[in-house]
Amino acid sequence: MDSTARPRRAPGVFLCPGEEGLLAYDAVTGGIHRLNALASLIIELCNGQRSVAQIRDIAAPLLQESADEAVERCLKDAHQAGLLTTAPSAMPDQDPAALARALKHAGKIEAAFICQFSAAEREPDDPRHWAALGEISHILGRRAHARAAYERYLELKPQDAEVRHLLIALRDEPPPPRADNAAIEQLYTRFSPFYDANMLEELDYQAPTRLAGLVDRLMDERVGFDALDLGCGSGLAGAKIRARCAHLTGIDLSAQMLALAREREIYDRLENAEISAWLERCDNTFDLILACDSLIYFGDLRPVIHPVAALLRPGGHFVFSLERGDQAPFKLHDNGRYSHHPETIGEIAAVAGLDVAHMEQGYLRMEYGAPVTGLFIALRSARLG
């Protein structure tokens, strides 16, 4: 390359930090390039204002031997790869945020990350860029980037309860006993318009079917029982057991999800309330209490299991699902949900006066292309009628 040429990054090439240097995504070819320290420095220096000779002079003191050759070779390689150009006029640049959305939708997550990082750098005061970067970073398992992105987002949107909750895990802070009400309400306000399609079609959600099967095994041919659906959501689980119920009550914290449940016309009663608070003030009793994936927002299960024990009729069952974890008693994950160790369930149940009638682990749903293992549990009232 001529020493007087003034190379610059080619349009459509986006950069972000990698493990040993920069990552470069070329939107023209769709290729990802992993640059070493020297290549990262040189591509940063190539801003169209410096000549090859000036770039060589800046980089040379950092190299031990054959500085001129190393810089020339690096420039040549980057130019041939399409990362640099010396054309007198650049083509119009592409929108990195739009590219990131398209790449994420296509499952090209690392390329989406690079583009979204560029979008956040270009418009650092736009909270949408930082929220998107946090999500993509989480999918890739880049915890430090996810934490930094969400922290910047929260500076711009301090009222966001959902992101505040996510940052507890990302900062490795002691987890609260359960997710904040505002975080759950915000999550399902956003999620409700596409909840059923996302869960059933994209995530292959199996908890409602598995819990209904467990109810069938435990209750035999019995019908006409009074049931309570805790965290009923849109009614996916309630619909599975409705035919066996004389009366079915649904409780959920999200008004938007309750509206979806109401459209199914399967509940005799629906109430907008937080689960543990509702259980404490309830004066009814039930043959069956169901909690389909609603306890994944609880770390400490005692505020649910203990009052449930008081509301179960003799021989009644509490049937629920959890995400299985290896850390006892529970762990708050970067996705904002809790997982539970199976051994702790029996301990809590015994104190509450409940027997473990059934516990199994198995496939729950998919998350970012990987299966999630669930616990499917039935606790039985030990009280005699």
Task: Summarize the helices and strands and which ones pair or pack.
Elements: E1 8-9, E2 13-17, E3 22-26, E4 31-34, H1 37-45, H2 52-59, H3 67-80, E5 84-85, H4 96-105, H5 109-122, H6 127-140, H7 143-156, H8 161-170, H9 181-191, H10 195-202, H11 207-219, E6 225-230, H12 236-241, E7 245-252, H13 255-264, E8 269-272, H14 275-281, E9 286-291, H15 302-311, E10 312-324, E11 330-332, E12 338-340, H16 342-352, E13 354-367, E14 370-381
Parallel strand pairs: 6-7, 6-9, 7-8, 9-10, 10-12
Antiparallel strand pairs: 1-5, 2-3, 3-4, 10-14, 11-12, 13-14
Helix pairs in contact: 1-3, 2-3, 4-5, 5-6, 6-7, 7-8, 8-9, 14-15, 15-16
Describe the structure.
The strands form three sheets. Strands 6, 7, 8, 9, 10, 11, 12, 13 and 14 form a nine-stranded mixed β-sheet that branches. A three-stranded antiparallel β-sheet has the order 2-3-4, with helices on both faces. It has helices at 37-45, 52-59, 67-80, 96-105, 109-122, 127-140, 143-156, 161-170, 181-191, 195-202, 207-219, 236-241, 255-264, 275-281, 302-311, 342-352, and strands spanning 8-9, 13-17, 22-26, 31-34, 84-85, 225-230, 245-252, 269-272, 286-291, 312-324, 330-332, 338-340, 354-367, 370-381. 44% of the residues lie in helices and 23% in strands. By secondary structure, it is an alpha/beta fold.
Q: Total number of β-strand segments?
A: 14
Helix content: 40-55%
Q: Give the terminus-to-terminus CA distance.
A: 90 Å
Helix/strand/pairing category? alpha/beta
Q: What is the N-to-C order of secondary-structure elements (H for helix, E for strand)? A: EEEEHHHEHHHHHHHHEHEHEHEHEEEHEE
